[in-house]
């Protein structure tokens, strides 16, 4: 690959091109694009010192200071990091914030000292980010949006993951969209959520699907939120309601929030995993204390405490069905039932998982929804 500039951001997205981000770690942590790895040309401290020099003495002095700071063993280590990555990802591209001196210098060093030619992004991260924001601000009018709804525990996310026409908003936000929805790993920054969402939209549009299915969410998914234009696009969509019996929903919830969740906590925290999981559930119950009211809050918490103690004594997950039933039947179901009554005119189909899969298959081959 020649040492050129490129601004073909769409192909970078569609090809899932690997990228080397040479910005300082503090910049990368605030937001980067998918498939990018942070191999900085300057550390946070070096960037700060050079930035101060730039403000006080101008560009020439700042550039000279940068070369001085990144020299000798420091420079060798950074070149080796780039070399190692490029051997594994020979088609990777390079960028800094504006496509200016940092990526240009890195590009020159990689060519002159490693003998590897690498293309960098014209306009850098800022130009790429603006491209992705434009995607979010212009929803695809040629694709019909659909929302997948259903009572809590219906397995909506499981169904979405089976469909190539779907975009998993909760997966992109690393959150399950409820008071109990947080994972062990943190959510992405809002910038990273938006960038990943734009990638998903570009890939979806490239396949020319007839519809786009997302879960029936509010704009907020934990700490992340769907940009307004795209949120309005989704909210205008027809609603498909997944119907699942309560007992099956209890089992789906038990597996996700107890069995699988405990396994994840134990993997992350070892022997302390169960107590960490216990804290996560009790804290989640506390978040809805005001909505539950004092007496119900105590009832729900006591039911969970009892289930947890019985699990420890019997080594079985079955006792947790009791507090899950309370939350589904007495808390979430009435709220969703009311929500459905307010959106009856938007319901275009409702039925079992098999019914919905048949309906969606027909849509893919129909001229009109």
TrEMBL record:
<protein>
    <submittedName>
        <fullName>tRNA 2-selenouridine(34) synthase MnmH</fullName>
    </submittedName>
</protein>
């Amino acid at each position: 690959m020649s040492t050129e500039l490129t601004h073909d951001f769409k192909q970078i997205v569609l090809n899932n091109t690997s990228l080397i981000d040479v910005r300082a770690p503090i910049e990368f942590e605030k937001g980067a694009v998918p498939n990018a790895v942070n191999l900085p040309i300057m550390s946070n401290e070096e960037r700060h010192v050079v930035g101060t020099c730039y403000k006080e003495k101008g560009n020439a002095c700042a550039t000279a200071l940068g070369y001085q700071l990144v020299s000798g063993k420091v420079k060798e280590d950074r070149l080796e990091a780039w070399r190692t990555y490029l051997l594994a990802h020979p088609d990777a591209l390079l960028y800094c914030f504006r496509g200016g001196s940092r990526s240009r210098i890195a590009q020159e060093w990689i060519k002159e000292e490693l003998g590897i030619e690498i293309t960098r992004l014209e306009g850098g991260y800022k130009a790429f980010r603006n491209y992705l924001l434009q995607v979010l601000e212009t929803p695809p009018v040629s694709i019909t949006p659909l929302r997948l709804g259903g009572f809590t525990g219906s397995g909506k996310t499981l169904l979405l993951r089976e469909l190539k026409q779907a975009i998993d908003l909760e997966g992109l936000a690393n959150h399950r969209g409820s008071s109990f929805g947080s994972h062990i790993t943190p959510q992405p920054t809002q910038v990273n959520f938006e960038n990943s969402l734009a990638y998903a939209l570009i890939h979806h549009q490239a396949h020319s699907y007839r519809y786009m299915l997302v879960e029936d969410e509010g704009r907020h998914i934990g700490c992340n939120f769907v940009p307004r234009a795209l949120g309005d696009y989704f909210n205008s969509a027809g609603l498909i309601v997944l119907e699942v019996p309560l007992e099956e929903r209890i089992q789906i919830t038990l597996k996700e929030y107890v069995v699988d969740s405990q396994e994840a906590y134990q993997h992350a925290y070892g022997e302390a995993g169960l107590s960490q999981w216990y804290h996560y559930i009790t804290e989640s119950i506390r978040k809805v204390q005001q909505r539950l009211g004092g007496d119900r809050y105590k009832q729900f918490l006591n039911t969970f405490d009892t289930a947890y103690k019985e699990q420890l004594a019997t080594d079985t997950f079955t006792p947790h069905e009791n507090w899950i039933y309370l939350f589904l039947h007495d808390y979430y179901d009435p709220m969703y039932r009311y929500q459905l009554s307010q959106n009856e005119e938007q319901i275009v189909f409702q039925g079992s998982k098999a019914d919905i899969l048949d309906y969606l298959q027909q849509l893919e081959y129909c001229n009109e929804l």
